Structures are given as structure tokens and as C-alpha cells.
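request received
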Amino acid sequence: MDYDRYDRIRAVQWQGDHLRLLDQRLLPGEECWINCADAGQITQAIKDLAVRGAPAIGIAAAWGVALAAKQGEPLDEVLTTLRAARPTAVNLMWALDRMKKRIVAGADAAALVREAQAIQDEDLAANRRMGELGAALIRTHSGVLTHCNTGSLATAGFGTALGVIRAGVAMGRIDHVYAGETRPWQQGARLTMWELVRDGISAQLIADSAAAHLMKSGAVQWVIVGADRIAANGDTANKIGTYQLAIAAKYHGVKFMVVAPSSTVDMATGSGEEIEIELRDPAELLSTAGKRTVVEGARAWNPVFDVAPAELIDAIVTERGVIERPNSISMQAMFGW
Amino acid sequence: MDYDRYDRIRAVQWQGDHLRLLDQRLLPGEECWINCADAGQITQAIKDLAVRGAPAIGIAAAWGVALAAKQGEPLDEVLTTLRAARPTAVNLMWALDRMKKRIVAGADAAALVREAQAIQDEDLAANRRMGELGAALIRTHSGVLTHCNTGSLATAGFGTALGVIRAGVAMGRIDHVYAGETRPWQQGARLTMWELVRDGISAQLIADSAAAHLMKSGAVQWVIVGADRIAANGDTANKIGTYQLAIAAKYHGVKFMVVAPSSTVDMATGSGEEIEIELRDPAELLSTAGKRTVVEGARAWNPVFDVAPAELIDAIVTERGVIERPNSISMQAMFGW
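response:
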């Protein structure tokens, strides 16, 4: 399968002495690149959502450690700062743990650069593999709905859920894609639609709240989403709205697929109940494009993730394989020690 | 019960020779009034969403007919044009039918002005009554979630779902209100929060997609929404997103209340399957505040209503009374001829 037509975006680029990041806050209006000259700037880019998407955050953080090593910074401090940049994404912890293991083993800066490059390369390969595995579950002439952005922008390339969609389109199984806007950051509207239009994939944007009505119309057979953390029982934390989609999918008999690299699986977290949900600034809901849209004095509640319980998930796809109707036993069989 | 503290907004005001409308597109940033000098301007205001909310649309249309009569316009033509302004809201048809009945009976312009005033006055009285009936269903110290705007702005005053919330707050039964943003027009963010903050009611805005996560937290005991059309079996068409809320509420054991004047009930429509769902311009999803936010070439699907089936509704509240767990039989008993 030749996927290259569907894989032309690289949002995280190592430049030898700095990291180049496509600023996802400005897309699709502007394609601006941020040159991060040190780990502090990478931490800030993660915090500010200039780079986002669980795998991309992990990759950027790994490069942050490598860059700090090259510059002789105290690596323990750098690891701590990077780790605190976003609390929910487990890939960040996973990538930093992997870098730390190399540091403890005495790796020099060059070896840490190689390790970061390996993390990035393996992510791309995992996405290609997940694309094939996930698309194989989908019948021809299907419509699918996705949420947030899980594409090349969110990963080393190709994408997780959007990788499955790309593979499904390339294999002739998916005819049409619906993307939810994904308030308040509009990752679906701004980023996923940008990727889909660039790739010439037949797609339409919907309001997040139109998903159930869409499912009722019969136009979608699968909801396909990424993950920020998958617990040991299959419960999956992902962008706010994922849980609602999973409930509506079950109600309509629409299938629900989670696609994420195995680094997203956190076997130390027993269930979704234990996952910390990041609350972000209410201002994200009170203003749009820098302009106040809600009356002064108004308050908001802005959780940016939620948890879809395993009972609502039909398939978890990682590069290691597919788990259908996940539970503690099947998760342990694939991801246990 | 003294509700006046919670009822200070009048968005549709008859001025003797023209109709004054609070332009809901500009709130909360600007409080601008539109002076409609003839029925054509009222039709345009309904089409453009300067006036919105099913009861308010019906009231504005009734004033359009009265104004046309005063100005000697051909009333049949005016009725046809007004009727076509918004297809889903049955109150519009109901108000125009009521005006037409008076016209057929030979009413003069003065009588038609009195009829429009009666429609407006009865709506306010109905809202006060529904507020009491709906709030009586709610236990003390409850949290509630509402969607879109169903307040004073959407009605003659006080509101339907928001009227129940106002009454519930006044009666000490509701401690806290959550309002969904209601994409793409943001009626919840712009209008409902404006009303809640003006009334000093404890409230927070949420992204539409955060509703299920909110319900899981246990913070809300009721979802309370308005209606644009209620079919003979209790199926309810309302703002896009209502259906999704009803599904999520059922999944969590959160109660679901529909509040609307009896003029919203359409016994000639057997079920929700027969209700025409208005599709609006995809541009509403592709741009924000006049600025393109989605990549050029992107398409969107923009249904602005959906249908919550009766099986997901715990109570329909009209000024005639409460129907719990509505179905064709209980609906017929209250609304049949």
C-alpha cells in the first residue's frame, strides 16, 4: 500500500542544533514555524499548545532532553520541568522515562539524540502499522466520524486515528469522513480539516453537538479517535467530547475505535477513575480569537479530557495489534509484563 | 413567589407603529435594538436570527401581521412570507394560524394588534406557570444543565427552560446552573450566560462536548431544555445537541425535562421522524466572527435542530401541566381534540 500521498506533513523537525515546530495555534490561517533553541522553549511550546497531540508532545519532549544534553544543562531538572508541562498525556511520561533510562545508563549527548530520533521514527512506523490494522476492521463504503486532531500534526507523521482513516481511504474502505470541531481549541475544525483537505479526502466538518444526529442518519459506521492515556482495563482518556461520542455510538450501534501507540497504554493505572483530568483556563471558553464573546462576570468549567469506559469501546488498536471489546484480561495479555 | 428579580428583560417590544427587537446576534458585546417598520423587516429579522427562540419568533411574526394590517398590506402574502422564514419552529405556524383565523373572521387592524398583544401576554403567563410546574419536579440543592437560549430573549419574557431554572433558583431548589455553549451560534455562551449573569444566578459555561463528563461527575440532576416542535408521541425537536444530551442523560440516570408552551405541540405530526430539520449555511461552521477559521476548500454539515425521542424524556412541561414519561396516549390525553 502506497500511503505517501497521504503522509506529507511533518510538524516536529530536528535540525541538528534546535527543534523546529509547526505552530499549531495559528493553523490553518498561517503556517508559522517556531525554532526552539533550548529545552525551556520546548517546554513552553508544549504548555502553550504550539505542539500538541500526545505522541507529538512525547517526541518534542525527547528532543528537549537531547538538546539539553548537547548544551550541558542539568538533565534531572529538565526532565522534571518537561514532565510537568501537560499532566494527562502519558506519552510524555513514557518518552521522558525512556530518555531517563538512557541517561542513567550513561548515554552521552550523541546517544540521546539517537534515542530521540528512534522515538520519532518508531512513532511513524507504529502509525503506519496501526493504520493497516485499524482499516482492516472497516467495511467498504463506510463513513467515519473523528474527533480532535490525531493526524500528522499530532504525531511523528501519518497519525493515529487519522492514520487509520488515511489507510482506510487509501484501501477504498472509507468513502467519507466527518470531523467534529472539538471545542474550545477547534483542533478538528482548524487542524484535522486542514490535513483532510490537503490530502484530498472527502470530508465535512460538524459541530460537536451534531454527532448523535449524524449517527442516527446512518452516515457513519465507525467513530475513530486517538487517546491520551489508556488504563489497564481499557478505559481511555482522550479529548473532551470523546466520552459523549462513545455513549452516542453505543446507543446507535455505531462502532467505536481507539487508536494509539502502545506507549499510550499505562498498565500502572488500573482504570479511568485514576486518571487525572486536566482543567484548563476558563478563558478558553469565554473568548474567541482574543475577543471576549461571553458577558463579563461569567464563569466557565473547562475540562479538556474525559474518559470513555472500556465497555463503550469496540476496538483498541496499537502497533502491537487489535484488542476487540477490551477488558483487564485482554489488556494484560497484550501489555502485561 | 416573587419572580420579578428574575424577569427584567423584554426582547420584543411593540411600539404602536413599529416593532422593536433586541438584536441577539450582537449580544453580549452590544445591546442594539432594531426598529422594524414593516412586516418585511420582521421577516428578515427572523431569517437572520436577529430575533430567535421559537416563542419569540411566533410573537414577532404576529406583530408582523398586525403591522401589515395597519399599513394596508395584502395579508395573505405577508402570512406566506412570514411562514417561510424558519421551517422548524411550530410556534411560528401556530401564531400565524391564530392571526389568520382572526383575519378570516373579519378582524380589523386594531383587533389584530390586540390579538398579537394577547399572544405575547399569554406567552409570558405560560412561562411563569411552566416555571412553577417544572421547578416543582426538582429536589433542593440540585445542579442543572441547559442548552441554547430559552430565556427572556427567546420568549415574551422569563423563558421556558430558563424560566423553570429561574423559578427553581427563586424557590431554592437549584443551586447551580451549567450552560452549554451551543455551537455554532453560541446561544448558550452569548445569550444564556448574559441572562444568568444579569440575574445573579450561580452558573458556569461548558463546551457542548463536556456535558457527559459533567453528568458523570454528579454535578447535575436535571437537563432542562426548550423545544421547537413536540410531536404527538412526545418526540421533541430542539436545538442541535439536544438529542446527544438526552442520550447522555439516560446513560447517567440524569433526568431530562422539556419545557415549552402548548403552542409548540404539533399533534398533526405523529413522531419526530416527520419533523423537517433545518440545514443552515455551512459557512456558520467555517468562520468565526466573520473570520475564516477552517482551511479554504473545507465543507461542513450544519443541521441546526435534532430530535430527542420521547423514550429519553422524563417530563414535558407546558402551561397546561406536566406529562411524565410522555407517549402518544398521555400526549393525546392532554393535547388531543
